[in-house]
Amino acid sequence: MLIRLSRTSDINLHATVFCFLILFCPAINAAPDNKTNCQGTSPIVFGILPYISTEQLIYRFSPLAGYLSEKLQASVHIETAPHFVEFARRTHEEQRYDILFTAPHLFPQASSKAGFRLIASIDSPDMWAVIVVPKQSDIQTIEDLRRKQLATVHPLGLSTLLVRKSLLDAGIDPDVDLDLVITPSHDASLLSAYHGVTDASALMLPPFEASSKRVQESMRIIARTEKAPLIPISVGPRISNSCASDIASVLLNIDTTPEGRAVLKHNRLSGFRKASPDVYEKLDESLFR
User: Fold this and answer.
1) Labelling 265: which of 119, 171, 179, 272 has CA 20 to 30 A away?
2) Residue closest to 195 by CA, chosen among 161, 218, 223
3) Coil, strand or helix: which one is 181?
4) CA nearest to 61, candidates 86, 43, 78
5) Which domains does the chain show, CATH number per domain?
6) Beta-sheet strands, E only, within 135-230
7) Distance (Å, rounded) from C-alpha 47 to C-alpha 25?
């Protein structure tokens, strides 16, 4: 398995990643003798939306990529991008990824522009964005955000779109009534309010729940947005239908093996389940109307 880092400043992470994989990968059994339909496709590029820092992304997804490599008997490479826009460009224009882990609202364009086919989704509780403030803050409700600074991710980020919709529904113009401060990741958004750089932070609930206990206990949720569909997993044009079926089978059955359950626990995932493209088309229409 290879991990491709998209920024030259991240090259110093190779040693950390190598040590991490040595510690984790012995738990994964040697590849079985039976062949899979993905062997001729190797290497398979696993594109992951840069919704968290590169360090956290590598730490969380390396075991999953290793598990896929072992089960598919094909080398699976992790790759991301510096930010959401570049990730979308690489998805649509370069068709750089073979397996795609992207935001729910970005899947319809990946499907229409680059031919990605949905094979599964993350199986987890309902997903939404939250707005958090330091516990000692005077901000109690979403209405109190007027004339305040709210940290959030890129304007194309799902959490930003969901929060903008919640603000507008509450009669608050996010472009006039408050100051949106763009940060590179959910982690950075959360830490912005935690360190007092901004008054509040917006981010998806899973990254907030994955933050350190110290940070969580120092923050308070003042608002939740409407629910969003779960993260889709899709495959690109280079993946044959037979290989796509194998990838889907590995993901959908990952919780049936001890090694798979260890991967899920490491990545704070419940598992994967079948999904319908219609759910994502409806979301795309509601957020971009």
Assistant:
1) 119
2) 218
3) strand
4) 78
5) 3-125+229-287 (3.40.190.10), 129-224 (3.40.190.10)
6) 149-152, 179-182, 200-204, 219-224
7) 21
Cα–Cα distances (Å) from 111 to 76, 105, 116, in that order, read: 21, 11, 4
3-state helix, strand, coil in the chain (%, to 5): 45, 20, 35
Per-residue pLDDT of the chain (289 residues; tens, 9 = 90+): 444 444 433 333 333 343 344 334 434 444 445 678 998 777 999 999 998 888 889 999 999 999 999 999 999 999 999 988 899 999 999 999 999 999 898 999 999 999 999 999 999 766 899 999 999 999 999 999 999 999 999 888 889 999 999 999 999 999 999 999 999 889 999 999 999 999 999 999 988 988 999 999 999 999 999 988 889 999 999 999 999 999 999 999 999 999 999 999 998 888 999 998 888 887 755 665 5
> Which amino acid, one-letter code, is at 141?
T
Going by C-alpha positions, the residue among 44, 99, 92 that lies closest to residue 231 is: 99
Q: List the beta strands (DSSP E) in 37-106.
A: 44-48, 76-79, 99-101
- HEC string for 12-55: HHHHHHHHHHHHHHHHCCCCCCCCCCCHHHCCEEEEECCCCCHH
